[in-house]
Amino acid sequence: MMSVTCSNLDFGRARLDFAACGCSSSVSTRNIGKGLLKKVNWRRRFLGCRRRVFSTKTPEAFLNGVAAGPPPALDLADEEKGLPSMSDMFEVVSEDLLQLNKNLQSIVGSENPVLMSAAEQIFEAGGKRMRPALVFLASRATAEIAGLKDLTKEHRRLAEIIEMIHTASLIHDDVIDESNMRRGKETVHQLYGTRVAVLAGDFMFAQSSWYLANLENLEVIKLISQVIKDFASGEIKQASSLFDCDVRLDEYLIKSYYKTASLIAASTKGSSIFSGVNSSISEKMYQYGKNLGLSFQVVDDILDFTQSAEQLGKPAGSDLAKGNLTAPVIFALEKETKLRDIIDSEFCEMGSLEEAIEIVKHSGGIYRARELAREMADLAVENLHCLPPSPFRLSLEQLVNYNLERIK
Predict the structure, then answer these.
(1) What is the pLDDT of residue 73?
(2) Does 48 score more than 70 pLDDT?
(3) Model confidence at 336, in pLDDT bands (50, 70, 90)?
(4) What is the rounded CA–CA span in Å between residue 58 and residue 86?
(5) What is the four-CA torsion angle of 393, 384, 300, 86, rounded to 10 degrees?
(6) End-to-end distance of the chain based on CA atoms, in angstroms?
């Protein structure tokens, strides 16, 4: 398989080195003029300066969630596939997840019932609990190496913290993206108003940080604290590159790491740290989480073009409509000049968004994005070779394959 990624893409904290793959490691100035012209539009989108939304509910109501050459044309009318369910893959940690579900409400706290009610909208919105499940799987897989017979209280608390941070990020994402639906249900800010949504997200970040500090493990505290910073960095990078047809693949991958893969990587590494394994294994688990997270994000970006609004739980093509250019679009732009013109116009003409979606579908962009997702998945499976065979390692491998099955 021909590589479509920058092979030495480094997500280290000191710098991002793209020299090995021929990418510039300096800050690009290619679009300074363009960025200045769109400054007002960027501020409007990022700061949400559209119509203000106020809740009409009372507090009582709140209490009552990449290959070379031209690829063949794709038939995107995918039929239903017999995918393994996540519940099957997570069966080996099902009791851990049951206990987590019981603990989430108490750990959020009952002294702020309005904010807790808003958070529960996300907790109860059909989430798969993938991130805490990853914590439990990685914890049990590495605990076996360290000779632990059961999970520690730190393992379990880490899973709860990870789910709270993820939930907080979803609430804030929906506010920034002005999304009205999440997993087929109305978002927190749509139900309760933007102010409550922002406060609910802030509250959950703060509460998770307090529990994190009480773990009293400096390495894990630094690891998870960086994730919260990465969320903000990812949103800023995304907001500052809307409708930018010159965005590069490595920039997209960095943004995807900040917004998605960073939390998953911290989940799997933090689990191994609490198991007490050596640093080489915990680093492999970090790389597994990073590559799995990037692969998941690319697949999600593909599905934004190939699935219906009913399947997605949100309008199809919503990222492109908002100017967020993902892997399928970046690849399509390499050969479709008309697509660039349509995006530059910000879909001002009737039917232009639908035309852009069709161009992406038939230009090879989705095909090459699939190759990118597969490459990241292969790396994730390779990272798991540090673990001995076990039902927990098998589930970690199955999750990688499950992700790819979503785009077959």
Answers:
(1) 39
(2) no
(3) very high
(4) 37
(5) 0
(6) 17
